[in-house]
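User: For documentation purposes, I need each entry recorded in a consistent format: the amino acid sequence on its own, followed directly by the corresponding structure tokens. There are two entries in this batch. Please keep commentary to a minimum and don't merge the entries.

Assistant: Recorded as requested. Entry 1:
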Amino acid sequence: MRRILHNDPHYHPYKIQIVQALNTRDYGAQVRFYQEMLDLIGEDEDLVNNIWVSDEAHFHVSGFVNKQNFHYWSQANPRALHEKPLHSQKVTVWCVMSASVIIGPYLFENEAGNAVTVNADRYVEMLQNFFTPQFAHFPVNENTLFQCRMEQQATQQECQ
């Protein structure tokens, strides 16, 4: 099928790509951040082992299409839009990692085991009750950097 679509009507597969929109000012900030990190690592090679990064992922339970396994076959890129429900049911999973360790996953659920929306209170509760006890087993010094991915309602102070 692939050969026929490619050779006869000259169709090509186009993979769906979803990217975060960047503003013009974001590019300069990215370059400054990368340069600052390179400078810090140049001063202290062990810094790489003291960087902790957290993130969460939302897994939709509504049959949302996995863009990694889906291609369009067309002579021209269709640039099609794919609509999805505004508030589809999903599960949020969080973890934090360093150069050598992953702490997690943590699923945001209520007492009954049902997925819940992540808000500032739940995020702080997770940091206090799940992350902090596990993080205490690792050496922390004045060079340790912790990047915290925060939901909209959380504040920088709560993340620290």
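Entry 2:
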Amino acid sequence: MSAKEPIHVFDLIERDRQGHLRFHYVIVDLRADYVAGTLHPSDDAADARWFAPKEIKGLRITETTKEFLKKIQFLP
């Protein structure tokens, strides 16, 4: 994969029951082109696959993900 410019940046803060900071994640999604190789899930995912825009419609994805894909013009 050939990484390009950032297309979406957000952070996620997780707190414990007392309200203390447990984790602070900063997520940077990059536009990228597939160059070669086989996609494999790692310890952060149970599965990993490539999808064409028309295939996304039949998947169970969150509204947030749908809105993100529309924002980057991957979905109509």
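Summary note for entry 2:
The first strand starts at residue 2 and ends at 15.
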